[in-house]
Design a protein that fits this description.
binds pyridoxal-5'-phosphate, 2 domains, single chain, 15% strand, alpha/beta, Aspartate Aminotransferase, domain 2, four-stranded antiparallel sheet, Aspartate Aminotransferase, domain 1
């Protein structure tokens, strides 16, 4: 689409030019199989190892504990199934939150069918779990706690480092963190001995490519291979490794971390400005995202309006935003996150998510504010 302003960066991002360049170069020059023993294979493997080390360094772990995957969904599935299936000697109790991404929720539901005991941590109206709830629910036979860092629908940030401390003090459970929405926006790492045990990342949320991701561990875990074959990726995930994807992801990750502070300041400023504008509409608008949430996501709801109506009205004026999440936006039922926040019925149907990315400019935000004013006036004028 020409002349559109893209503000749906939590659904996916446009790859950065530098990332595309890295991908092209590897495809053109270093296309050999990294498992081959000839010189070209060795070169390709060197690139792969460097990419692995770069991402491992950012996460503060070792390269040998980091797998390249096809994205956040695979990383989440692999982490949860892997930890659950390898620790039945300790127990079968799993804790997660009620606002996880479907790639976590559907996986734990499958484990429930396999006889695991899954419990959910509730969130308050800001979308945040309670550490006391965690303390109460964690048990000696808890083997896995899976908590997302930043919620994809409304940006709530979970206290993952405090949670890690509690989990490690009170049980032998592993903490898996879905950092798909937080990596490159907030500091994400294993923090030496104190952090999570396992982290998922997705390439396409950080101006890398769709079909690329990372699953990283703090240390060696007992683990069953989940793709059998040639034994690549430390025997856990067989299949010829996509070196261009890995290099591109490492490049995107490095750029994201290098520019993180500046972008966070910019996003926060934009969020504050739009928040102030939306607050001016009184009861007509309810803002779901809190000022303590992630800076790049701002979700709000317009009273008694359907999300699609607002999205279409904004799209006609060149602004691309989404309903609360790309995964649930095509479904008609209210999202599980919106349900968990116990929103007033009047605000449940019209949740809109604005999400900023590296390509957005001050001019985009000025245009957004103008369009928001026009659209809300057009659709809600009578009650303003
Ligand atoms: C929080 C979260 N986890 C996991 C995923 C899935 O990632 P991917 O699209 O790379 O499979 C998403 C994607 O929207 C997400 O927002």
């Amino acid at each position: 689409m020409v002349n559109t302003i893209y503000l749906d960066n939590s659904a996916t991002t446009k790859p950065l030019k530098e990332v595309m360049q890295a991908f092209m170069t590897v495809n053109e020059q270093y296309y050999a199989n990294p498992a081959s023993i000839h010189a070209m294979g060795v070169e390709s493997n060197d690139l792969l190892m460097r990419a692995r080390e770069q991402v491992a360094d950012i996460l503060q772990t070792e390269a040998k504990y980091l797998l390249f995957t096809s994205g956040g969904t695979e990383s989440n599935n692999a982490a949860i199934f892997g930890i659950a299936h390898s620790n039945t000697h300790i127990g079968k109790h799993i804790l997660t939150t009620e606002i996880e991404h479907p790639s976590v929720l559907e996986t734990v539901k499958q484990l429930e069918k396999e006889g695991y005991d899954v419990e959910y941590l509730h969130v308050n109206q800001d979308g945040v779990i309670s550490l006391d709830d965690l303390r109460t629910k964690i048990r000696k036979d808890t083997i896995l706690v899976s908590i997302m860092h930043v919620n994809n629908e409304m940006g709530a940030v979970q206290p993952i480092y405090e949670a890690a401390k509690i989990i490690h003090e009170m049980s032998r459970a592993f903490l898996h963190v879905d950092a798909v929405q937080s990596f490159g926006k907030l500091a994400v790492s294993f923090k030496g001995e104190e952090g999570p045990d396992c982290i998922s990342i997705s390439g396409h949320k950080i101006h890398g490519f769709k079909g690329s991701g990372v699953l990283a561990f703090r240390k060696k875990l007992k683990w069953q291979p989940y793709a059998l074959g040639g034994g690549q990726e430390f025997g856990l995930r067989s299949g010829t490794v996509a070196v261009p994807q890995a290099v591109a992801l490492a490049k995107a990750a490095r750029l994201a971390v290098e520019t993180m502070k500046d972008r966070a300041t910019k996003y926060r400023q934009w969020q504050n400005e739009i928040r102030a504008q939306l607050e001016g509409y009184g009861e007509a608008v309810h803002i779901l995202s809190t000022p303590q949430g992630a800076a790049h996501i701002l979700s709000f709801s317009v009273r008694d309006l359907k999300g699609e109506v607002i999205i279409n009205a904004m799209q006609k004026r060149g602004i691309i935003v989404s309903t609360s999440s790309a995964c649930s936006s095509k479904q008609t039922k209210t999202s599980h996150v919106v349900e968990a926040l116990h929103l007033d019925e009047h605000y449940k149907k019209g949740v809109i998510r604005i999400s900023f990315g590296a390509h957005n400019t001050v001019e985009d935000i000025e245009q957004l504010k103008q369009v928001l004013a026009e659209v809300i006036m057009e659709l809600k004028g009578e009650i303003m």
